Amino acid sequence: MKDKIKKWIITNTRRFISPYLIFCSLVCFIVTLLPWWPSFDSLIILKYILLFGPRWWLLIVVLFILLGWYVLSKQQKIMFFILILLSFNYLDFQLPQFWHGNSSGKEIKIISANIGGGGSKEVIQLLVAIEQPDILLLQEARKINLPKLFGEQYFSECVSGLCIVSKYPFENTDSLSRKIFGGWGQFARFYKIDILGKEVLLANIHLETPRSALMSILYLSPDQALAERVESNRELEANLLNLWAENKPYTIIAGDFNMPADENLYQQNFSMLNNALEVKGFAFNRTKYTSWHGVKIDHILYSDGISLSSVEVVELVKGDHRPVMATLVIKAVE
């Protein structure tokens, strides 16, 4: 009797596990291709769910395969480990890109921080005192007295919640306003900074958030028209930044992108630049937290005339965002 039950369990587990492996493979394939999804309106809501929702669900789905481990063939066991790797890739687990070596030149330390969601100005002040960055970029910085916080030794400016604090003199060259699509406030400010005779172009940005569309999904009433409108605004902002950064050798874009690096919109507009966290980040490096999960949406990007010495997400800071700190190297002329 026991042998019959065991045989029945093995037979039915084998019947279940093969189609389940195919299902898991298909799902992993779909999420792995997120950076190259077509920009179809019908896919926006699904894309937002997969990108901005908790990502641990895929690993749990794949781990269910272990329940039938004893009936898996050798090939199926190999496939299981591949699916685990793809699940960690979707979780945005990072290993440093060791082929990106350091270059000689002038080092500049940059900190970018969104302090709007409970971020403490005093903690940022302490962070600056400890780390002594060359450039500090803030987003959602309201009612802030920069000279009082950081001293007169820094050059500073704060407009529309976008602030810069710099050891180097800078020139504001342009800005982009949400008035172009009926909104308010600025989402980008552009600067020119002379660093050892090189003209470095810098953008401090805070792009459109998909929060309103995500909230409609969370409350089980997804609003397709709202999602399309939000996506159109996000696409316009990203396109304008792409045009600004195109073919400039010493360019830095930093701030709250409100998009992860594996979003198709990011890949279409920013993949020509290097992402500090993608190049030398390790583990998860989430920069924005909700009450139950996190996502990496704050970035420091730089062009090929600049290299990266180090990068980290500063965890010991209050608020829903974590600052990103990178030491960049303005390459010496070879």
Secondary structure layout:
Blueprint: H1 2-32, H2 44-52, H3 56-63, H4 74-90, E1 105-114, H5 121-131, E2 135-139, H6 146-150, E3 155-159, E4 162-166, E5 170-177, E6 186-195, E7 198-206, H7 211-218, H8 224-245, E8 251-256, H9 264-270, E9 274-275, H10 276-280, E10 288-289, E11 294-295, E12 298-302, E13 306-313, E14 324-331
Parallel strand pairs: 1-2, 7-8
Antiparallel strand pairs: 1-14, 2-4, 3-4, 5-6, 6-7, 8-12, 9-12, 10-11, 13-14
How much of the polypeptide forms β-strand, as a percent range? 25-35%
Q: What is the distance, rounded to the nearest whole angstrom, between the alpha carbons of the first and last residues?
A: 79 Å
Return Rg in Å. 23 Å
Number of structural domains: 2
CATH superfamily of the largest domain, by name, is Endonuclease/exonuclease/phosphatase
Structural summary, described in words:
- This protein folds into 2 domains: 89 residues, no CATH class; 227 residues, Endonuclease/exonuclease/phosphatase (Deoxyribonuclease I, Chain A), CATH 3.60.10.10.
- It has 334 residues and is α+β, with helices and mostly antiparallel strands.
- The chain has 10 helices and 14 strands.
- The strands form 3 sheets. Strands 3-4-2-1-14-13 form a 6-stranded mixed beta sheet. It has a 6-stranded mixed beta sheet with strand order 5-6-7-8-12-9. It has a two-stranded antiparallel ribbon with strand order 10-11.
- The mean pLDDT is 91.
- Helix 1 crosses helix 4, helix 3 packs antiparallel against helix 4 and helix 8 runs parallel beside helix 9.
